[in-house]
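User: quick one, sequence for these C-alpha cells?
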C-alpha cells in the first residue's frame, strides 16, 4: 500500500496527540524520549520521587572514613561516596560529648549529637517511612537505598577516660535504640540493624563485655586476638584494628618482604577464623603510588575495611 504525503502527516499528528506533547518530534536525529524526560523533570512530577531516595544510586563500599569529622560535611560527605563506616572522636567534658581530634579542635556546637545522632535519625526517618506499605515491616532499612540491609558502622573513638565516657555514649545512642536502629546482641542472638556502633580508643573492654543487651561493641586489637584472657568473636567485636605502620611497616615503595606479607595474612586470618573483619589504620598517604600499593596489597590479602583519609580516591580505587 502506498501512502500519500497527507496521510503520513495525519498519522504523525495523531500519534503526537495520542501520546502527549512530550513525545513530539524534537530535534532531528535526537530520540524524542529526551523531550519526555525533560518535561517530567521540569514539572517536578511525583512519578520521579520516592521516599527513600536520599542515597539513590549510591553503592555502599567497605571503606572506613578515618576522622570523619574532618570532612567538609561530617557523615554526609562519606555517605555521598558510599562509605559504609565512619569514625567520630568523642570527648566527655562538662556533661557533653564533643567531637574533635584534640582539645584545641573542640567547639561548643560540634557535638556527637549534632554531627552524628541527629543527622542519622533524620536520614533513617526518610529511609523508613511509616505508611500502609511498611505497616508490617519488621526490619528497619539502613542508610543506603541500594542495599537497605547494609548497616552503617559507627566507630566511636573515646578520647577521655573510657569508664566515665561509656555511660554518656550509651545515653547518647538512646534515640537510635528506641527506634531499634542499633545492631544488638542479646539472648545469644546477634540482630543486625541500620547502625552498628563500635567503641574504640579508650573504650573499656570490660564495660562492653558487661552490656546486656549489648548494642555497643568493641574494636578488638587485631594483633592480639589470641590473648587467652578474652574470647574475641563477632558478638563482642565485629571489627579488629591495628596500627599498620607498627604492625607491618612496609611503606609501599619497593617490594614487601615475605615476613611482612606473612604478618598481614596471619593477622587477617586470625580475625576471619573468629568471624571478625580486619582493618589496618595509619597506612601511608603519600606518595600516591605508595598509598595505592599498600591498599592493593591489603585488599588482595583479604583486609575487609579500607581505612582512608582521601575518600574520593578510595571510592574510585
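Assistant:
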Amino acid at each position: 500500500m502506498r501512502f500519500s504525503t497527507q496521510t503520513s502527516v495525519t498519522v504523525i499528528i495523531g500519534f503526537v496527540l495520542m501520546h502527549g506533547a512530550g513525545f513530539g518530534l524534537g530535534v532531528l536525529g535526537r530520540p524524542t524520549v529526551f523531550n519526555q524526560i525533560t518535561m517530567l523533570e521540569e514539572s517536578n512530577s511525583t512519578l520521579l520521587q520516592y521516599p527513600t531516595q536520599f542515597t539513590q544510586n549510591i553503592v555502599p563500599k567497605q571503606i572506613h572514613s578515618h576522622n570523619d569529622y574532618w570532612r567538609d560535611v561530617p557523615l554526609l560527605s562519606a555517605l555521598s561516596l558510599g562509605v559504609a563506616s565512619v569514625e567520630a572522636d568523642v570527648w566527655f567534658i562538662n556533661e557533653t560529648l564533643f567531637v574533635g581530634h584534640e582539645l584545641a579542635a573542640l567547639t561548643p556546637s560540634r557535638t556527637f549529637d549534632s554531627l552524628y545522632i541527629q543527622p542519622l535519625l533524620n536520614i533513617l526517618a526518610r529511609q523508613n517511612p511509616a505508611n500502609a506499605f511498611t505497616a508490617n515491616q519488621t526490619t528497619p532499612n539502613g542508610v543506603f537505598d541500594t542495599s537497605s540491609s547494609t548497616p552503617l558502622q559507627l566507630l566511636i573513638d573515646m578520647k577521655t577516660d573510657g569508664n566515665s565516657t561509656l555511660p554518656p555514649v550509651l545515653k547518647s545512642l538512646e534515640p537510635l535504640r528506641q527506634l531499634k536502629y542499633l545492631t544488638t546482641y542479646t539472648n545469644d542472638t546477634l540482630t543486625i540493624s541500620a547502625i552498628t556502633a563500635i567503641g574504640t580508643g579508650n573504650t573499656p573492654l570490660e564495660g562492653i563485655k558487661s552490656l546486656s543487651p549489648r548494642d555497643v561493641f568493641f574494636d578488638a586489637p587485631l594483633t592480639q586476638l589470641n590473648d587467652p584472657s578474652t574470647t574475641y568473636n563477632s558478638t563482642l567485636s565485629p571489627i579488629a584494628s591495628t596500627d599498620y605502620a607498627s604492625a607491618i611497616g612496609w611503606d609501599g615503595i619497593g617490594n614487601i618482604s615475605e615476613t611482612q606479607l606473612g604478618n598481614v595474612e596471619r593477622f587477617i586470618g586470625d580475625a576471619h577464623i573468629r568471624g571478625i573483619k580486619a582493618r589496618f589504620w595509619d597506612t601511608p598517604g603519600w606518595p600516591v603510588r605508595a598509598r595505592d600499593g599498600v591498599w592493593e596489597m591489603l585488599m588482595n590479602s583479604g583486609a575487609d575495611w579500607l581505612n582512608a583519609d582521601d575518600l574520593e580516591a578510595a571510592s574510585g580505587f
